[in-house]
Write a structure and sequence with these properties.
9 strands; disordered N terminus; DUF3224 domain-containing protein; globular; 2 domains; signal; 1 helix; SO1590-like_sf; DUF3224; mainly beta
Length: about 150
C-alpha cells in the first residue's frame, strides 16, 4: 500500500510529460493519513479519596488502523463545567497493512467557550514495522459513533 502511494504520483507526473525518477523522492518522508472508526469501553476506577476521576479503557479500531488500544485516563470536571483529561494509550495492530505498536498521548480541555483535543504519537514509541512513526490523531464524534483520522509519517 505504501509503495502504491509513491508510484501513483510518479505515474501521474509522467503522464503530464514530467521527467521523474524514484530518486527524486528518496529520503523525503511522506505525510500519510488513515481513517476509520473505533469502539471504546470505559471502566471507571473507584478512587473516592482522589479529587480526579480515573478510568481504564480499551478500544477496537477498524479502517486504516486495525487492532486494539488500551490505556488509562485521568479527568477532572469543575462545578462550573470546565473539564480536562489526559490519557496514555498503547495501540497494537496494523496501520495500512504494516504491523506494530505505538503510544498515543491524549490532552483534552473543555469550557463553555473553548474545546481542545490534542492527541500525538509519542516520539520513539513505535515498534515493529511502525518503529519510526510520528504524527497525530483527530477524533470525530457523531452521535454514538467515534471516528478517527490519523496523520502520520513513517
Amino acid at each position: 500500500m505504501r509503495r502504491l502511494r509513491t508510484i501513483i504520483p510518479l505515474l501521474l507526473l509522467m503522464q503530464c510529460g514530467f521527467s521523474v525518477s524514484a530518486s527524486d523522492f528518496k529520503g523525503k518522508e511522506q505525510i500519510m493519513s488513515a481513517s476509520g472508526a473505533f469502539e471504546i469501553q470505559l471502566d471507571p476506577q473507584g478512587d473516592d479519596n482522589i479529587p480526579a476521576g480515573r478510568m481504564i479503557f480499551s478500544k477496537k479500531y477498524t479502517g486504516g488502523l486495525v487492532g486494539s488500544g488500551a490505556g488509562q485516563m485521568l479527568s477532572k470536571r469543575t462545578d462550573g463545567g470546565i473539564a480536562v483529561y489526559m490519557a496514555i494509550e498503547e495501540f497494537k495492530g496494523s496501520l495500512d497493512g504494516q504491523s506494530g505498536s505505538f503510544t498515543l498521548v491524549h490532552k483534552g480541555y473543555m469550557s463553555g467557550e473553548t474545546q481542545r483535543l490534542e492527541i500525538n504519537i509519542l516520539q520513539g514509541s513505535g515498534k515493529g514495522e511502525l518503529k519510526k512513526i510520528s504524527g497525530s490523531m483527530q477524533i470525530i464524534q457523531e452521535k454514538d459513533q467515534h471516528n478517527y483520522v490519523l496523520t502520520y509519517k513513517l
